[in-house]
Amino acid sequence: MKVILPLAIVFICGFYMLITFFIPAKFAQDSSQLLQLWYQGVAAFFVFIGIFNLIKINVDRIQRRLKDWEYSIILLSFLGVMLVAGFVGGRDSRVFLYLFENFQVPLGATMFSLLAFFVASASFRAFRAKTPEATLLLIAAVIVMLGRIPIGYLIWDKFPDLIEWIMRIPNTAAKRGILFGIDLGLLSMALRVLLGIERSYMGGGVEK
Amino acid sequence: MNIFERLSQLDRRIIFLLVAIAVIVPMIVPLNLPVDITKPVKNVYDKIESLPEGSVVLVSTDYDPGSEAELYPATEAFIEHCFRRNLKIYMMGLWPAGSELGNIALNKIAKYYNKKYGEDFINVGYRPGGAVMLLSLGRNFSDVIKVDYQGIPVDSLPLGRRVKSARDLSMVMTFSAGDPGIIHWIIYFHARYGVPVCGATTAIMAPQQYPYLSSGQLVGLLGGLKGAAEYETLVERRGRGLRGMDSQSIVHLLLVGFIGLGNVILLYQRRKK
Amino acid sequence: MLFISLIILSSIDFKAFDTPNDDGTSITLMWQSDENFQLFEIYRSETADGFFEKIGEVEGVECTYRDVNLKPGSSYYYKILGKKEGITVSSQVEGPVKAIVQYFNLSRLPMAVCIIILFSAIIYYITRAKKRGKLFIRKIPALNAIEEAIGRATEMGKPVLYVPGIMDIDDPQTIASMSILSRVAEKTAEYGTPLYVPTSRSMAMTMAQQVVKESATRVGRPDWYNPDNIRYITDDQFAYVSAVDGIMVREKPATNLYLGTFYAESLILAETGHSTGAVQIAGTAMPDQLPFFVAACDYTLLGEELYAASAYLSQEPVQLGSLKGQDFGKLIFITVIVIGVLSQLFKWQFFINLFNVE
Q1: Hey, where are the domains in chain A?
Q2: Which end of chain A is more exposed for a tag (fewer CB within 10 A), N or C?
């Protein structure tokens, strides 16, 4: 029963959603929307499970003085401060906005901007013309990089047009090819999941 | 150990340092490089220019602080263009933090142009639910939106009363950093209701949007900081987009240099073998 | 102010019809006119000679309007007024038009046919595989490397880090990732190697805990399972990345597996992992992130390989059969694309129209 019930829910809901995609009538659309709303309702409750897990692990770490336990204090303090600021004054209170604009925004931007550094180190290490295909890729990359900046335009005013062409034609064609493969793979996996052939995602693999 | 062998084991911290210099120096000493205008950006600009005064543009800020550096300058430039053309802005966000960022830009520019909240612009804040929410929103705004971000009933605001369904919008502009974002606006507002959709995305996401541009499902696109810089040039505003372009130019050149150097090392290693 | 209003009947070619393939709540209006009107006003009535209520107006360049939120099964009458510089031109009254509920979206028929063919092909190959047993599937180096990489971590006495992407369990890539996690957990439990799974969604965490626990039980090592190793970090994209980077730098896992949906964080994770000297295997169906993973990881599952991974790792004929069915699907796609190109070249309108999907 423990295995059959979830599989039955997956089978019935999955195929029902698939069928309603082809039925425009209101009952079909409303019921499929209702199923999606249920999912959102369930998902909302899981937020508490996540926060509970976060607090439990970090409190435990502080209590047992595990390695780097000091970081857990910082994490829990900020979690508390943001929660209080949000609950007391609301999302538009001065304190909440101050914390958002002066902590969350710059911290997020800092992590994102690490990309610039990592792109540089990765391109130095890995972007090498080892095969003819890699050489082609490399030439395209250099053209796109130069064409995307004002200096590229100053060097040759046709650079931007050239990259527009690269993006529109070869890039789109290759991407569509990859996407076809991905979508077929997705369909095949969806069918395995719906039919209960693939069930390892819910923990139930094959007995060994 | 000769120079090539040394370079092949280059400490990545040196690379990081060079990138940091390439970013910071042009910020201190601006080069003011001219920016060329690409077609997808011009399309967004032309679309706004073509709208009659008083038309409603839905602006959705679907990003978070992580992509703020790339998308916020475009948000400001776009809002400025709308207000200058006396268009109405109906703002919302599919990402929680996006609506806060959008609000900062909206209030800043609205103050400059003396625009009145509720009449010329409105912000209904973060709307969770992604695709499911958009589906109901397009059909009937009041099913989803009852109050604005401050808790004021939208029906008590003239602009809130005016927008009842997707049909009342002249255009959707999404500042999108991922999921939910640009693709959902195309599916639920363009494909279903024929509302023209324009977008601004991070540079990394821009190539993914080209199929929609060629099919016309997306009218125009601002890709990354370059897109923002181009838009700033078009609306004659020197913001963070244009200022960032100098740094981006030098960093791109540096990257091309690194790639070149990496390949010289490869050649040397092959010869040696 | 006075202005002359001219009423010229029927100079606007106007028609109204039930919107095809909808839920019976809308009627579509279309019109054509030689005049350059500034705007059109749309009027509706429930009887031919009753009061026509104005329901909307559109700019002069428009030539269609969809009247929505109607009562299914009811009939309506419509007329439109074209306006320019004090001149008003009315169309004839169209109706009665009945808003009819549709029970099958005909515009999606080609899609339904494609799905039926694909599903049939997959089921056919699954049944065939059941009878015949072993099937040949090309080697996927990244998947063969997973076991080796876990072995390496075991030898070095270091943990394995598994990142299941940053999306929730409603994303198919996360589901695919959980299936792979189940195999990875079996191996790590067998070898007694610690497995860290930081997640960015609480539902994904719950699912991952269940998957790992059951895998450990299956290989007879329930004692190995530690729920604290599978933990929720945060939904915030870059805060999550910084936490995972922190785990890499502090714990120095010998093997990093990134399998699932990734966005801009892909390179940040992979480069940090590279700097700690870990063997890295990645897999995603996000085309934009593939180049980053290819550049910074040792092995990468490209797009569809992520979805095929679980079937490949299980080596069960039934699952492998579905991959064969998928290949058949590819053959159909290629054929349709070739015919599509020819249709465009030779204007075979019938074939082109089949793909006008709403």
Answers
A1: 127-196
A2: N
